[in-house]
């Protein structure tokens, strides 16, 4: 007679007691790992904004050394690195027509490059006379301007509230510019030696840069999925190299050859950090929702203010802080309204071609843009 505790043939394989016990003993995933896993895109976007802030800091420092490095040279050096990196990437991954882009969108890519150059020139020039935080926040006017341009040229919807947000943001610009005819002369500012006239001129050039960025982003919206995102980067960096080189020749601007290790390090920092920031933002926006991506992009103003305090030993005056809050609030409202509108159109069953969010400039398509 067989023992009662024996296992009959065929039944022993049905219950894998050791495996069940092993599964029960598995330790839960640590909270910090789950937190990182659930916010990878957000963290990548935030990291890209930190690199952008450091890049702007390098531009600011190079503008202040003697002799100062010209804005055109800064653009040239940065975009040569970006162009080479983009060509290497497109060649390695087999992206077709890397230099001119697909037929049918080449004119749009050209207008994207022109707008990108002026957008970049606007912020780099303004950093000569504006604080790091003020120059950064003025770029956040681009989402509002692009929403208006999209309504006029691409027949996109634009609400009265979004127009009101645009008008309100102009009040923030006035507080940052602080024109003498309104504020009666120089006000306390972290930028020593900058006259009210120079400050007003810097804000004016920054606004021209905003218009350039608006042209670039509107062109991107029109291109949509008809070109690879890297075609945008090639057009942007290639034209920036050409235009900045021509501008240096026409204006007889001397090319400053680095004679100190600090100069060389800062120049390389602009190019390398800018390219790294683009890659991180690409990866982050591919993994993140539009609304959360929008929130992460605006963290750059926090980084800019911190870096300004640590490295430049200055803090924004109260009027600049108030202007910053106004502009960011208006830009956030505009960007998130677009996100909500897109969600409602999808819920109602309508659809439209949405461009790939795969590089820093295309962040605008569902959130605030970058033309850094």
TrEMBL record:
Could you tell me which residue ranges the EamA domain spans? 40-177, 206-333
Key words, A-Z: Membrane, Transmembrane, Transmembrane helix
Source organism (scientific name): Ephemerocybe angulata
Q: What protein does this entry describe?
A: EamA domain-containing protein
- Transmembrane residue ranges: 35-55, 75-95, 107-129, 135-154, 163-181, 201-220, 232-251, 263-283, 295-312, 318-336
Q: Which GO terms describe its cellular component?
A: membrane
Record carries keyword Membrane: yes
Q: Where in the cell is it found?
A: Membrane
**Where is the stretch described as Disordered?**
347-372
InterPro entries listed in its UniProt record: EamA_dom (IPR000620), EmrE-like (IPR037185)
- Where is this protein chiefly located? membrane
The protein's topology relative to the membrane is: Multi-pass membrane protein
**What is the superkingdom listed in this entry's lineage?**
Eukaryota
């Amino acid at each position: 007679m067989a023992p009662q505790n024996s296992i009959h043939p065929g039944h022993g394989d049905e219950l894998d007691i050791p495996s069940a016990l092993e599964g029960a003993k598995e330790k839960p995933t640590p909270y910090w790992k789950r937190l990182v896993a659930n916010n990878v895109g957000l963290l990548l976007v935030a990291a890209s904004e930190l690199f952008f802030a450091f890049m702007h800091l390098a531009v600011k420092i190079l503008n202040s050394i003697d002799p100062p490095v010209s804005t055109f040279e800064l653009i040239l050096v940065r975009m040569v690195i970006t162009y080479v990196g983009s060509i290497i990437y497109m060649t390695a991954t087999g992206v077709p027509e890397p230099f001119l882009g697909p037929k049918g969108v080449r004119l749009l890519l050209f207008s994207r490059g022109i707008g990108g150059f002026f957008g970049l020139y606007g912020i780099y020039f303004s950093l000569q006379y504006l604080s790091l935080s003020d120059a950064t926040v003025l770029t956040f006017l681009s989402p509002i301007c692009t929403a208006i341009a999209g309504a006029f040229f691409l027949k996109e919807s634009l609400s009265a509230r979004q127009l009101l947000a645009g008008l309100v943001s102009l009040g923030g610009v006035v507080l940052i510019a602080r024109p003498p005819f309104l504020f009666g002369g120089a006000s306390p500012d972290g930028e020593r030696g900058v006259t009210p006239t120079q400050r007003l001129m810097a804000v004016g050039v920054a606004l021209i840069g905003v218009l350039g960025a608006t042209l670039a982003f509107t062109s991107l919206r029109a291109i949509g999925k008809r070109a690879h995102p890297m075609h945008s980067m090639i057009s942007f960096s290639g034209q920036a190299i050409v235009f900045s080189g021509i501008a240096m020749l026409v204006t007889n601007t001397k090319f400053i050859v680095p004679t100190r290790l600090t100069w060389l390090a800062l120049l390389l920092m602009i190019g390398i950090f800018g390219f790294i920031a683009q890659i991180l933002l690409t990866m982050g926006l591919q993994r993140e929702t539009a609304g959360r991506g929008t929130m992460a992009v605006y963290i750059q103003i926090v980084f800019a203010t911190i870096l300004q305090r640590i490295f430049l030993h200055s803090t924004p005056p109260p009027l600049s802080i108030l202007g910053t809050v106004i502009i960011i609030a208006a830009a956030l409202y505009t960007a998130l309204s677009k996100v909500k509108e897109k969600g409602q159109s999808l819920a109602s069953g309508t659809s439209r071609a949405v461009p790939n969010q795969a590089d820093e400039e295309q962040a605008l398509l569902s959130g605030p843009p970058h033309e850094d």
